[in-house]
Amino acid sequence: MNKDDNTKRRDEILEILIIDDNEQITKMLTTFLELKEHRCTVVNDGKEGLAIVKKNRHDVVLLDLAMPEFDGYSVIKDLEENNMLKNHKIIVFTASTITQEELDDLLKRGVASYILKPIDIDVLLAKILDTANL
Amino acid sequence: MLPIKHTLFLISGVSSFIIFYMGVVNLLTSVEQSTGMILLIFSIFVSTGTLLSTIYMSKSITKPIEKLAQSMTEFSKTNKISNKDQIKTNVKEIFELNKNFESMGIKVERTIEMQNEYVQKLKDIDRKKLEFISMVSHELKTPLIPILGYVQMLQKENLLGKLNEKQIDAVNEIYTSTIKLDRLVGDILMTQKLDLEKVDFNEEEINVSELINNVIKEFKPSTDVKKILLTHEYEGDTMIITDKDRINQIFSNLIKNAIDFVPENTGKITVGAKEDLTDIKFFVKDNGSGIAPINQKEIFKKFYQIDTSTSRKRSGSGLGLAICKGIVEGLGGKIWVESEENVQTTFFFKIPKKPIKITIKNNSEKI
Question: Which of A36, B29, B154, B310 has its CA at 20 to 30 Å from residue B256's CA atom?
Fold first, then answer.
């Protein structure tokens, strides 16, 4: 965070962390994002994902809200309790129903952005770039 | 009304007095004083006996009846027998009466218990049904994410390689059907929530003309493509308190339907509102083929389609109007259609400008 060149250029290669228990989804996302020449790290488990978020900096974190046991909400809550939520650029997404108020609440707490399903890959990329450039 | 105790005392008092009086009269009018005296003493015994037996009767009959009356009053208020087995009596009729009352009471208690159990069971079934549908919806939507992702990658020339024309057609068809399926799953969940009254409605102050302008702005791109004229018809500056997202959802469903039914190039869709003191009446009017009177009520039913030849063109899930109806009714309003075949169709939905407070809703737990 203390780097001056924190703002990424549009064409820069981004380090993206994907936390989602569904391997088909993570494979699709990495296929797409790597074709767009970004680098992806995939974690299929919330707890492990949280550890990596805390340890290494990524330009953007894609976080699935609905995961078994340790879900996206738990990841957000843990980061929030450690005052680290605003240090990370987290984009949440889910295939479950979520209300606008719940999304607004997440944004207010410090989540950078969200993507509604069905995921449109153009929208996804635009949000990733916007978020990285925040 | 006179309590039974008083009645008994009244009767015994009067009869004792009559017997006593007759004794005195006998004494005074009797030829032989000794006979009169005997009669007087006899009458004193009889009237004392009457009084004593009245006291006894009052204890053994009126006390238990009073108690019974008390527990009946109690029962009618609480549906519970409070003092079971407390009425002691030697009088057969009262014993029977009390026994029957108690067994009736137990039956009523049990029936009410059973009824409560059924209500609870029905609520559980509703909750489980919604949980299941929510789960199914999640499970169905999850695989659609990678399907859509790859299809969109295929649609782009520069990602997975260039496709020939037939392949592009095929991929586009897959894309359309996948989007349709995704929407259908969402709509099924929404109709279930509306049916079970598990939809939470927000309340916020919104400007009607802003609302309509935003609707026009949202749909302008899709009507422009088909050269359909999309206009608005509302002059005013009214503020209403309602759920903006849900109102937008209704407009979105109605306008999408209208786009499917108006002719390209000459199609016209008008969005507007009229108001009176308490309500606002929104409308979406189109110059499409119209809806026959026989179908005008039916179209709000789930999966209702007027005829199969037009349904293939439709992009909707068949649940759009049912959802509109559910939302409007949830907002305390009503929705209807007026149409002249081959001339025009207007969908109206009227809602209160301010929500009417209903406090019956106690089962609005979110899932």
Answer: B154
